[in-house]
Amino acid sequence: MSVGNVQKAPTGPNKPAERSKSNGAEEPKSQFNPRLLWPDMIKIPDNPWTFTCKEVIEKLGTNPQATAEMKRCMEKCLIYFYTVKKKLNLLDHTYTAACILFFRYWFVYGLPHTLTDCIHVSQAILVTACKTMENNRPIDAYVKATCEFLVKDLSGLRTKQNMDKLRWDVRDRLVESEKAILCSFGFDLNIENPKDLIEEMFSGYYRFNRDYDLPEEFKLVFPKILQEARNFIVQAVTQPVSLLCDGYTFIALSLIYCGLQFKKLVDKDFRFPANFFSDKFPVAVTAQRFEEIFTDYRIIEENFFDLKSNKGDKLEISAADINSVIQEPEVPEECPSAAANPYDYELMKSGEVKQELIDHIEKRVQELFDRTVMEVKKRSSENPSEVEPAVKKAKI
């Protein structure tokens, strides 16, 4: 039966408006409005991801054997993140994001029963972190690195097994697990990654346009403290400290710790400038609050992983110790977490760009240009054929 001449009535938003002739007047009826279902601005879900130390410890359970097995699987997953980061040359930002997402997933959903399944979940978390923090890698790169890790580091897999079959299985599981991970988090990827935030907070823009009024002696030593704080963050995320505090609090914690170490080892008179934290952080920094966080951090270390990067007794930091390096205003007791947000767009949109920043950017661009030219010359000297293209044959 031919249906070529049958014409269907228009439907959906392109359908002509029907008019009512009641009372002798033609009035258009309401139509489908796509903007009600797809608004101009979509709000990303933002869920609280911080918990008390007691809640985190209780997640380990009370069965010693089951707890030991769980921690063994968790530690293997963290080793997987570090191994693949090295193989794929991922940023520290991606590594810290993967650790944060991993501990969030563990806290809410727990881990699969087998170590292989844990690695599959970790692979999806690492891919999600990479897509969030930097340029994504080809899927085959993740699959190859994961297969090599499974065969090399897991005793349950024999090295002689069919690698092609394993790669297809890992690839299929990645696609499935990635969808499950995104749905499990409710598409909430607002990680507040401290390693990423610390680079933004103390980038060239802020150094030259907001922090120009810092004391000169502090500006000389602060880069060293800042570098140690970056190392502190990368090491600390291997423990579930990210479940205790948000990203900005994590950065303040790292700076206070490194400031105290600098005071102890280098300069006994060192202190952060007055209002340093209140001017730069959208969270309140008080000695009492951070004494509690350091105590919780030490308890977390004692109950989770025995790593070379553990701080141990160095985390026994009192409120008096913290007050010896910070100079912050008193916070009202009725609202201890209140703090102004220095990154509010309304406060930043009309900021002045100083000549020092322009000169700094020009210098960095020139350094990048010179480095690129040197790399091209080096490759050219190693492969002369790349410089002298082959002569094309004349078409007959």
Automatic annotation (TrEMBL):
Source domain of life: Eukaryota
Q: Which GO biological-process labels does this protein carry?
A: regulation of transcription by RNA polymerase II
Under InterPro entries, the record lists: Cyclin-like_sf (IPR036915), Cyclin/Ssn8 (IPR043198)
Extract the ranges annotated as region (Disordered): 1-32, 376-396
Recorded hits in Gene3D superfamilies, A to Z, give: Cyclin-like
Q: Any idea which GO molecular function terms this record carries?
A: cyclin-dependent protein serine/threonine kinase regulator activity
Instruction: Quote the biased-composition stretches of kind Basic and acidic residues, using this chain's numbering.
Output: 16-29
The protein in question is named Cyclin N-terminal domain-containing protein
